[in-house]
Design a protein that fits this description.
alpha/beta; 7-stranded mixed beta sheet; two-stranded antiparallel ribbon; globular; Dinucleotide-binding protein; STEAP_metalloreductase; NAD(P)-bd_dom_sf
């Protein structure tokens, strides 16, 4: 069992909270106006990218030594036509620079809230969490916290793979926004 703090109480935050609670973890939420007293072993940034950056800056000391899960897709929400990070980098890499004493993991950005709630992509395939990090123990801890949930887990490699995960998340979001797939759809990983 892990102690998990979720920054954000929106659709993704609530879906992730349910997944981790169902898996037997202790979950607490921090909203934008809530005081940050304590943070669990795993902190999940279930907020837009710009808010994740602000949390990283404001809470870097409290996040030191913690596993910090970045679920963001750094989409330009004004145009829905580009990512707001350099093409050779990622939101997760930027957050890792801001949190040098934390163990940053990119995960859940290729999952929609609906597919987390049902543990299925479009009602057809098991929902898979892809996780990238330079810290192998952080990925194993996250995987362990998901045991008991109905989700599958795949180690996507080092944090350098966050760039590809964010590109995949971006494509999936634009497909859903253009009604090419449903918000319960997306990409499935078959093994």
């Amino acid at each position: 069992m892990s102690a998990i703090t979720i920054f954000g109480k929106g659709n993704m935050g609530q879906a992730l909270g349910k997944v981790f609670t169902d898996a037997g973890n202790d979950v607490n939420y921090i909203g934008s106006s809530d005081p940050v007293d304590t943070i669990g072993d795993i902190a999940i940034l279930a907020v837009p990218f710009n808010a994740a950056v602000e949390i990283a800056k404001a809470q870097s000391e409290k996040l030191a030594g913690k596993i910090v899960v970045d679920i963001t897709n750094p989409l330009n929400f004004d145009t829905w036509d580009e990512l707001v990070v350099p093409a050779d980098s990622s939101a997760a890499a930027h957050l890792a620079e801001l949190l040098p004493d934390s163990k940053v993991v990119k995960a859940f950005n290729t999952n929609f809230a609906a597919s987390l709630n049902t543990a299925e992509v479009a009602g057809k395939q098991k929902t898979t969490v892809l996780a990238a990090s330079n810290d192998e123990d952080a990925k194993k801890t996250l995987q362990s916290a998901l045991e008991g949930s109905k989700l599958a887990f795949v180690d996507a490699g080092s944090l350098r793979r966050a760039r590809e995960l964010e590109g995949t998340g971006f494509l999936q979001m634009t497909l859903a926004a253009n009604e090419q797939i449903g918000w319960d759809g997306g990409f499935a990983v078959l093994k």
